[in-house]
């Protein structure tokens, strides 16, 4: 009936795994730590405290920016983003507004499509709120509904990677996210462990329906790729249905925020998104403007590790199957093994590694030889075993010959009871040959 | 020695301690007595350190052991916006009533490690919002020269305490005039270091981009001694400068001002200014010339523009800095904010708001850049510029009523220098209506030594450095 095309942009938040927090000396690693044990006056926002930026976090952000083909701003600064929330003890978050550390990058999908990146900036994480019901009251203590605040996360360095709305399908969104995840991990700046909340995803979705645009919806704080794709899928359906019912189109003021319920697999409305202008951004006067010299940027660029995309390309050039290249690219040791064994069939070697037949910590060549020669040397060894199994199971053989091909599995099993390390495929081929 | 303890400067007290003329305990007791006697009428101190005598006893042992530290055994007072462990810190606000800090401010930490004893916390305009100490939520401080008048502010308690000789030296903080203006109104010496010369860590922020802690002292030499002790890079303050700190008090060597070029800013002799004040400034010019300085009249941007810029920048920063007092922490709700703080929060929120940011904050920042470059040019040719600190002498109690721009009007002549982060001294240069008038000698960033040296010579060769009769005994 009509042309419907999703328009998706994604904000990815990545917690850096620096030693200390963004603006103080407290440890940045907060996962599973007892609440409020990793705090100090600075990250509690007490009066009189001042932020001192973490050099490593700034360098790590530049690394991410460079890996995503961004331009590094020579002149940059922090800004205060002001809003009231109980997990924000200063009443503002130190972030970056008009001069992010990195801007105007891109990431290339496998299809060759370039997803433009608006910016990569550095900010501080907030504290963590837990809403609980305390059932039975000890006299004089809290009971009923309470909100508890843990400031261990307050001030942890957080990098925000913002894409342009260039993603046109859920599949593209998922690929984009997986690539970002692989890159930041390869850079060694974060573990990006989704389960620990070290990587949080915020897709913004709307639809182009024959040139009519549905209102923007920002999906907040999603912590898995699957939830992100499910949420986007749901939004696409929901927005389409809503548009058909109401005909409501995108305006400057009707952007909304929704959460994702992973149990019901639906999105639900959250507080109305405040417009950027309401945050009353202004330059953080407690931190002098940063000047990032081109020589520093070049130094960082020189020391960047090879990134997944480049590794995959290199492996494919060696003859490795694209699917295998994709899988091993995240494993530095495997990549090294494949690249250094130029005298072997590298495609086959990669495939053996993917299928976990090779012990990377042991000598590679004998393993490779054994696994690849099995077809020839073992045919002779297997022949008597196969003959015996066929003689011992006349009924099964008869069934097979009548066309009940599924019994082949049983026969393979029988053979492999004797020839324990025989390859199933080889055995199967030999059996089929014999049974002709 | 035939002078009483409270008539001695810090430098003289140190000599007296070294020569065993008196002990630190004696000095502390002497001042505690005076605080007991006079503070109820002046309201200069909010809190007095109960442990001061015990601390002095310890220090006397150190002195006996031959320990040497720059301020060993010297009691001093600290403005109530410096965090002091064990002493309440409220910034004269009710929002922070009963607040005991978890850590020591860098300034007081350095003073303590230099051997000083904090005698107490002094009254101020609440949150440092004002130039009268009348916005304090613990009652105003009175001017020791005339109890019907204001001491100035926001460091009014510190200035009054030094003027009434309740303490030999006190620490204030200046965002724009808050050290120099109360010092001028109370007839004592105020010194504002370059922005970033003294750490702001542990000072309850007013306007982060101009806040500068500084001493209020009996004379320039004492101010220089204290600055030497508190200045220097601080790993906890990213805006602090790593430039080397000089021993300023040992560098006050000028016997004349030959080779020194001083600018008299025409626009700072405001048309509304009383003739008597202008006369005192012209007298100061003559005196500086008689010391060998070359003084020339120059023209700078009308200071009224600095008021505009400062009002917008400072209110914007204030609205942000006070956001943490959201009623969730610190025990007291937002309804405890006084009217002045509320006005500043509202105005600052407005100037940062959508659509107004460009019109106000951004424009203010642009004009600020112009002010800075104008000063840069001035200091290419001149070593310092001079003018009055404040347009007139101390105003009467209640003068701030219905005057929301009171502070700006009293600080108009020092606000440009604060916006540019300059350093400047304020020293007494005469009296009008029996109330002291202050002369500002202002120099380029990090020219502390030069400015202190000129101010010191001026003070040494003039007769205006006096204390009110009433508190001589």
- The beta-strand count of chain A equals 17
Strand elements of chain B, count: 11
Portion in helices of chain B: 25-40%
Mean pLDDT of chain A: 90
In words, what does this structure look like?
- Chain A has twelve helices and 17 strands.
- By secondary structure, chain A is of the alpha+beta class.
- Chain A folds into three domains: 4-126 and 156-301, no CATH class; 306-362; 375-436, Arc Repressor Mutant, subunit A (Orthogonal Bundle).
- In chain A, helix 3 (225-246) links the parallel strand 13 (217-219) and strand 14 (256-261).
- The longest helix of chain A is centred in the C-terminal third of the chain and has 29 residues, at 364-392.
- Chain A is elongated.
- In chain B, 36% of the residues lie in helices and 14% in strands.
- Chain B has an eleven-stranded mixed sheet with strand order 1-3-2-4-6-5-10-11-9-7-8, sandwiched between helices.
- Chain B contains 14 helices and eleven strands.
- Chain B is α/β, with parallel strands linked by helices.
- Chain B has a single domain (5-471), classed as Amidase signature (AS) domain (Amidase signature (AS) enzymes), CATH 3.90.1300.
- At the A-B interface, loops of A face helix 9 of B.
């Amino acid at each position: 009936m009509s042309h419907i095309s999703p328009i998706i942009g994604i904000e990815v938040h990545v917690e850096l795994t620096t030693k200390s927090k963004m603006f103080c000396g407290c440890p940045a690693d907060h996962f599973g730590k007892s609440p409020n044990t990793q705090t100090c006056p600075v990250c509690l926002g007490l009066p009189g405290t001042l932020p001192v930026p973490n050099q490593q976090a700034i360098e790590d952000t530049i690394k991410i920016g460079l890996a995503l083909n961004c331009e590094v701003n020579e002149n940059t600064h922090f800004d205060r983003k002001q809003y009231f929330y109980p997990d924000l003890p200063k009443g503002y978050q130190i972030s970056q507004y008009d001069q992010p550390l990195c801007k105007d990058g891109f990431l290339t999908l496998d299809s060759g499509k370039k997803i433009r990146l608006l910016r990569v900036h550095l900010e501080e994480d907030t504290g963590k709120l837990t809403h609980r019901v305390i059932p039975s009251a000890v006299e004089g203590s809290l009971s009923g509904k309470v909100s508890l605040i843990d400031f261990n996360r307050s001030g942890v360095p957080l990098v925000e990677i913002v894409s342009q709305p260039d993603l046109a399908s859920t599949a593209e969104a998922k690929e984009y996210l997986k690539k970002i995840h692989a890159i930041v991990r390869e850079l060694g700046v974060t573990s990006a462990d989704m389960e620990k909340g070290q990587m949080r995803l915020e897709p913004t979705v709307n639809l182009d329906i024959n040139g009519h645009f549905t209102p923007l919806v920002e999906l907040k704080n999603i912590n898995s790729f699957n939830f992100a794709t499910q949420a986007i899928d749901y939004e696409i359906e929901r927005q389409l249905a809503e548009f058909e019912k109401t005909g409501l189109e995108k305006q400057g003021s009707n952007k909304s925020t929704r959460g994702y319920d992973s149990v019901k697999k639906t999105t639900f409305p959250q507080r109305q998104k405040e417009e950027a202008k309401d945050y009353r951004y202004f330059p953080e006067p407690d931190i002098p403007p940063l000047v990032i010299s081109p020589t520093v940027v070049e130094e960082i660029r020189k020391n960047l590790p090879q990134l997944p995309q480049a590794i995959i390309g290199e492996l494919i050039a060696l003859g490795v199957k694209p699917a295998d290249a994709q899988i091993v690219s995240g494993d530095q040791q495997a990549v090294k093994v494949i690249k250094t064994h130029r005298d072997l069939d590298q495609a086959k070697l990669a495939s053996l590694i993917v299928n976990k037949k090779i012990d990377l910590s042991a000598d590679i060549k004998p393993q490779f030889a054994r696994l690849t020669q099995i077809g020839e040397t073992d045919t002779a060894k297997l022949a008597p075993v196969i003959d015996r199994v066929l003689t011992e199971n006349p009924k099964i053989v008869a069934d097979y010959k009548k066309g009940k091909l599924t019994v082949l599995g049983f026969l393979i099993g029988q053979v492999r009871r004797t020839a324990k390390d025989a390859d199933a495929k080889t055995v199967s081929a030999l059996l089929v040959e014999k049974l002709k | 020695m035939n002078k009483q303890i409270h008539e001695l400067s810090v430098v003289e007290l140190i000599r007296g301690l070294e020569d065993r003329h008196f002990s630190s305990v004696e000095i502390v007791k002497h001042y505690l007595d005076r605080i007991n006697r006079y503070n109820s009428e002046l309201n200069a101190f909010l809190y007095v350190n109960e442990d001061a005598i015990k601390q002095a006893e310890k220090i006397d042992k150190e002195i006996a052991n031959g320990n040497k530290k720059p301020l060993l055994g010297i009691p001093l007072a600290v403005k109530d916006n410096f965090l002091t462990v064990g002493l309440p810190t409220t910034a004269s606000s009710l929002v922070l009533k009963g607040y005991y800090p978890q850590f020591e401010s860098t300034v007081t930490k350095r003073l303590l490690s230099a051997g000083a004893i904090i005698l107490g916390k002094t009254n101020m305009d609440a949150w440092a919002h004002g130039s009268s100490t009348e916005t304090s939520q613990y009652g105003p401080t009175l001017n020791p020269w005339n109890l019907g008048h204001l001491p100035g502010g926001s460091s009014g308690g510190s200035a009054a305490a030094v003027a009434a000789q309740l303490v030999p030296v006190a620490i204030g903080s200046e965002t724009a005039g808050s050290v120099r203006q109360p010092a001028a109104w109370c007839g004592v010496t105020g010194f504002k270091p370059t922005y970033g010369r003294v750490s702001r860590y542990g000072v309850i922020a007013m306007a982060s981009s101009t806040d500068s802690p500084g001493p209020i002292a009996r004379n320039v030499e004492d101010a220089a001694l204290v600055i030497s002790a508190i200045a220097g890079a601080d790993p906890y303050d990213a805006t602090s400068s790593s430039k080397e700190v000089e021993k300023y008090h040992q560098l006050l060597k000028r016997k004349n001002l030959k080779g020194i070029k001083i600018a008299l800013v025409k626009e700072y002799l405001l048309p509304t200014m009383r003739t008597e004040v202008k006369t005192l400034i012209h007298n100061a010019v003559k005196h500086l010339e008689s010391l060998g300085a070359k003084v020339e009249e120059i023209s700078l941007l009308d200071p009224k523009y600095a008021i505009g810029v400062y009002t917008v920048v400072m209110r914007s920063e204030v609205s942000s800095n006070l956001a943490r007092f959201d009623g969730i922490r610190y025990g007291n709700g937002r309804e405890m904010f006084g009217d002045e703080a509320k006005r500043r929060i509202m105005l600052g929120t407005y100037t940062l708001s959508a659509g107004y940011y460009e019109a106000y904050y951004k424009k203010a920042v642009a004009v600020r850049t112009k002010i800075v470059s104008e000063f840069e040019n001035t200091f290419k040719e001149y070593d310092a510029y001079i003018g009055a600190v404040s347009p007139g002498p101390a105003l009467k109690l209640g003068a701030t009523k219905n005057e929301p721009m009171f502070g700006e009007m009293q600080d108009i002549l020092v606000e440009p220098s604060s916006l540019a982060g300059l350093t400047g001294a304020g020293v007494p240069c005469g009296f009008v209506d029996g109330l002291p008038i202050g002369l500002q000698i202002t120099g380029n960033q990090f020219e502390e030594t030069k400015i202190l040296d000129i101010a010191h010579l001026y003070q040494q060769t003039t007769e205006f450095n006096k204390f009110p009769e009433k508190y001589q005994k």
